[in-house]
Amino acid sequence: MSESFTPQISDRICRHMNEDHAEAIVLYAKVFGHVTAATAAEMVAIDAQGMDLLTQVDGTPTPTRIVFDHVLQDAEDAHHTLIDMVKQARQSGK
Q1: Of 9, 53, 64, 74, which residue is most buried, by most CB within 10 angstroms?
Q2: pTM for the full model?
Q3: How far apart are the C-alpha atoms of 72 and 59, rounded to whole Å?
């Protein structure tokens, strides 16, 4: 089994997502967080139940919590879940 969730794993995932997948985070905010006016977003935390984003709406930071459709087992599960979610978000056409 992969690593279980720790603050260090959350930080690592958030740093990677913010640095390499900023457009995916905006999609998460729009599609799963229902913040359709989001112009930017940052992942600030992730845990087994969901992720916390800070979205920008008209220049105003807006905290957004997105709950996963299942409890994540580990970092590998988070990786696969985030990929599946971005694919689903892109298919939604937002």
Answers
A1: 53
A2: 0.91
A3: 32
The CATH-assigned architecture of domain 7-76 is Alpha-Beta Barrel (3.20)
* E strands present in the chain: 40-46, 50-57, 60-67
The ranges assigned to domains in the chain are 7-76
| pLDDT, tens digit only, all 94 positions of the chain | 345 788 999 999 999 999 999 999 999 999 999 999 999 999 999 999 999 999 999 989 999 999 999 999 999 999 999 999 999 999 986 5
